């Protein structure tokens, strides 16, 4: 009884609005996902369990933020800071802090034990997100702090600002807008995903995880079917 009521609570708070801007979390994502989301294609509704996972992520951020505020060597310059709204990409950085008069953008992430144990460098999409924060906030270094969801162990990675990489990410967003969104053309499947899908040879278990868990898989498959005709 209680589980059904809790599930309903989460489902009622589910926000499935059409995306109106590029978000920083779109960096490194399949461009088709961003296209489908901005064009309002129907997406698979997230189950209550997945919504609870997101909720837990928010609580992890608050907990880590509280710790930063409580450390005397750290000066929290700002938390939950929106990027300048005139920019093509929207987003909110977790924190900008100062340690020994050096500024850092901080981005918190949480991940499961399996991924956490294996991780030796930050995920490329997380690196891209931090790079964009550094770019827009004009802070030359940043830290991605990962928390293991199962054990609460932490791992941190310090990154230096990379101007070339930021320019490339921003130009990819601009071409997605100009070549596909403005023209109502569905972008192609990114090359790496395309190769992985072909290699899976219709074996669902071998499909790339991005596609297996994609909210727009049905729509994407329809486009692929259409191109075969
Ligand atoms: S199913 Fe895969 S290729 Fe298609 S939109 Fe989703 S992530 Fe991209």
Number of helices: 9
Q: Enumerate the spans where pLDDT stays under 50 for 5 or more consecutive residues.
A: none
**Biggest sheet strand line-up:** 2-4-5-6-7
Radius of gyration from the alpha-carbon trace, in angstroms:
19 Å
Secondary structure class reads alpha/beta
Q: Can you name the CATH architecture of the largest domain?
A: Alpha-Beta Complex
Strand content: 15-25%
Q: What's the helix-strand series?
A: HEHHEEEEHHEEHHHH
Overall, the morphology is globular
Topology:
Blueprint: H1 2-12, E1 22-23, H2 31-38, H3 48-69, E2 74-82, E3 89-90, E4 92-99, E5 102-111, H4 113-118, H5 124-137, E6 141-148, E7 154-160, H6 163-181, H7 191-200, H8 209-212, H9 217-228
Parallel strand pairs: 1-3, 5-6
Antiparallel strand pairs: 2-4, 4-5, 6-7
Bound molecules: iron/sulfur cluster (SF4).
């Amino acid at each position: 009884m209680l589980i059904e009521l809790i599930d309903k609570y989460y489902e009622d708070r589910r926000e499935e609005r059409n995306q109106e801007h590029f978000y920083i979390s779109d960096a490194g994502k399949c461009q088709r996902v961003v296209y489908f989301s901005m064009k309002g294609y129907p997406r698979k509704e997230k189950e209550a369990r997945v919504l609870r996972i997101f909720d837990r992520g928010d609580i992890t951020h608050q907990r880590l933020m509280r710790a930063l505020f409580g450390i005397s060597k750290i000066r929290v310059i700002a938390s939950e800071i929106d990027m300048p709204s005139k920019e093509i990409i929207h987003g909110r950085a977790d924190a900008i802090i100062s340690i020994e008069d050096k500024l850092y953008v901080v981005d918190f992430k949480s991940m499961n034990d399996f991924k956490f144990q294996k991780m030796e460098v930050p995920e490329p999409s997380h690196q891209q997100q931090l790079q964009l924060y550094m770019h827009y906030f004009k802070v030359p270094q940043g830290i991605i702090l990962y928390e293991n969801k199962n054990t609460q162990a932490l791992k941190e990675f310090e990154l230096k600002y990379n101007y070339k990489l930021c320019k490339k990410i921003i130009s990819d967003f601009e071409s997605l807008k100009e070549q596909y969104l403005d023209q109502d053309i569905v972008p192609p499947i990114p090359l790496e995903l395309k190769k992985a899908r072909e290699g899976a040879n219709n074996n669902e278990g071998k499909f790339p995880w991005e596609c297996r868990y994609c909210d727009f898989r049905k729509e994407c498959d329809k486009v692929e079917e259409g191109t075969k005709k």
